[in-house]
């Protein structure tokens, strides 16, 4: 049984920890945030992720999963050390590596016998080598550790499924011994023939950025196609469906919307751009994806304003959905932030509702009224705007909403509402790239 410590019990660290415990390893999830660890130890889960609660409880009960804020002791007890701290956007779009390097320092101070040091955080290409040098310079015997880049591809909202049944696991290392240990950590996957790919460290680091940037590019592309559909009278859903039937394209990530957000795409694209600039390699497609996404967020506010003939002054708008996508309470870089700020800047007022992300949004935006019930949020409003594709918004009682509103404007930035119904109920409405009656 491998003994593993995860350093950084955020979204990725927690899911990785519980996932590796589920694979049969003995895992300590550690963090410098003592409150978070205390919370976990008392049985409460700091993030919203479907199914997480249950699987954590099961692995704690069978003693394969523990939580600790004593990072040094946890390192001493473990053979595999997984770095899963944040790498937020830093200066000039570069990834801020200070958390990762600080963890590398802690590791180098506490290596007592052979360890595999694994980076799961998304780090710029070349970081692995820097981490190896940093640790090598501090330990007496450089053979005491090997290094692995093991990027993570989970999606918030389906993180557990993505971790337990991944499309691929990338193990980037120069060491055969470390590779075998990592294969063993992921043993149930390789028994089930899930593809485990062995690469160099740099290739593994590149795979993560190349994958995320491509997905973001795909979103920006379909958003721009949707905008053109509006101008020429085509229906983007039919276009996207037909495009997706082509196996070379695939139908995934071809859903038009209000622009991508979240803790990964925006910062990872900026980081890739900055890496390409530092290497004097032009990546025009990545810059274009970023620009298109910024435009799309602004375009949603403009759509709303246009529905009011250019004037949002004193208008009361219900914004439904705050998280950057469904099934998560993560609001980082969510398009809802741009929408709310856009409304307030133009003199309007916001009633906000999200099934679980109200508290997160309230931490950064105060001058908004937050509601626990969707139907309370739409009371006496001039307009309703859907910003997140939560399932509960797919089956709205539109008649009831119309009765409660004082106005008749409806903007669906996720294209999840039946337009025929909006039309027949007399709403003045808009969406992203679909033909309207
Ligand atoms: P997060 O902000 O949710 O969590 C980071 C955690 O690290 C926090 O709990 C923080 O307290 C802890 N931490 C910071 N410094 C520490 C230290 N010195 N010692 C111990 N703990 C420390 O971040 P996240 O969303 O889990 O992302 C982590 C990494 O994984 C990032 O590089 C991110 O790009 C990458 N990633 C994220 C996702 C995702 O969907 N969130 C998916 C794939 C990859």
Descriptors:
437 residues, alpha/beta, six-stranded parallel sheet, 19 helices, 46% helix, binds nicotinamide-adenine-dinucleotide
Q: How is this structure best described in words?
A:
With 437 residues, the chain is α/β, with parallel strands linked by helices. The protein has 19 helices and 14 strands. The strands form three sheets. It has a six-stranded parallel sheet, sandwiched between helices. Bound molecules: nicotinamide-adenine-dinucleotide. The site of nicotinamide-adenine-dinucleotide has 26 residues, from α1 and α5.
Number of strands: 14
* Number of H/I helices: 19
Give the strand content.
5-15%
Coarse structural class? alpha/beta
Approximate helicity band: 40-55%
The average pLDDT value, as a whole number, equals: 97
The largest sheet has its strands arranged as 3-2-1-4-5-6
For the biggest sheet, the summary is: 6 strands, parallel
In whole angstroms, the N-to-C terminal distance is 62 Å
Bound small molecules, deduplicated = nicotinamide-adenine-dinucleotide
Residue windows where pLDDT falls under 50 for at least 5 positions: none
Cα radius of gyration in angstroms? 24 Å
Cα shape = elongated
Topology:
Layout: E1 3-7, H1 11-22, E2 26-30, H2 34-41, H3 52-61, E3 65-68, H4 71-76, E4 80-83, H5 98-109, E5 115-119, H6 127-138, E6 145-149, H7 159-164, E7 169-172, H8 176-185, H9 187-191, E8 196-199, H10 201-232, H11 236-244, H12 265-278, H13 284-307, E9 316-320, H14 335-345, E10 349-353, H15 358-364, E11 369-371, H16 374-377, E12 383-386, H17 391-394, H18 398-404, E13 409-412, H19 419-424, E14 428-430
Parallel strand pairs: 1-2, 1-4, 2-3, 4-5, 5-6, 7-8, 9-10, 9-12, 10-11, 12-13, 13-14
Helix pairs in contact: 1-3, 5-6, 10-12, 10-13, 12-13, 13-14
The chain binds nicotinamide-adenine-dinucleotide.
